[in-house]
């Protein structure tokens, strides 16, 4: 079995996944990527350059594909998986009544079921590698307090937060770390998407108009490293996320009033 630690990252073809891959690769990890975007994964791997890389094209909604992908990665990495970064996700915004059935189901399947399937599939590998193992789930500031104009996305990220807390308890006796990242608006290609099919205004434009900060993606990668190697269950990333976490705990009434006063669904 290899002594080099390994990390498998879904959504590794761009954005947060790419930043995490580079950060861990630069620090000696064997890096594996899973994505539906092979070109994006190839570009990510080219940025690492340590020679210890792997990629597999698959859809996180496919439970059987998870087993195949992780088995192939474990073989390539010398028989072990130390970290799964359950990072693949898509945005969706707009008021709930604007969201189509297809948009809702796709977001739920990728952001929520994909995380559950990944955790289920990687469990035996993380158990074998414990105590040097970690399940790292990408949640969101939207999993701290409900976001108007993003009810479906918010539901998935509250779900990811809940999964993290549940598995932290379930897997404690196996000495497997379970952690989540809760970033606010991060400078990735996802911000350039429109929030739903009925909108023609990008998410980045809405964030800028609202006067909210956009955090460099490298900050998320650093937070991922600290989460995997530290003791904190949830790690907030970015000013907005930290403010939400503080307000939801210490000023819930004021936060509710501010949220209702500022509510303007994405895409409007």
TrEMBL record:
<protein>
    <submittedName>
        <fullName>SDR family oxidoreductase</fullName>
    </submittedName>
</protein>
<comment type="similarity">
    <text>Belongs to the short-chain dehydrogenases/reductases (SDR) family.</text>
</comment>
<dbReference type="InterPro" id="IPR036291">
    <property type="entry name" value="NAD(P)-bd_dom_sf"/>
</dbReference>
<keyword id="KW-0560">Oxidoreductase</keyword>
<dbReference type="InterPro" id="IPR002347">
    <property type="entry name" value="SDR_fam"/>
</dbReference>
<dbReference type="Pfam" id="PF00106">
    <property type="entry name" value="adh_short"/>
</dbReference>
<dbReference type="GO" id="GO:0016491">
    <property type="term" value="F:oxidoreductase activity"/>
</dbReference>
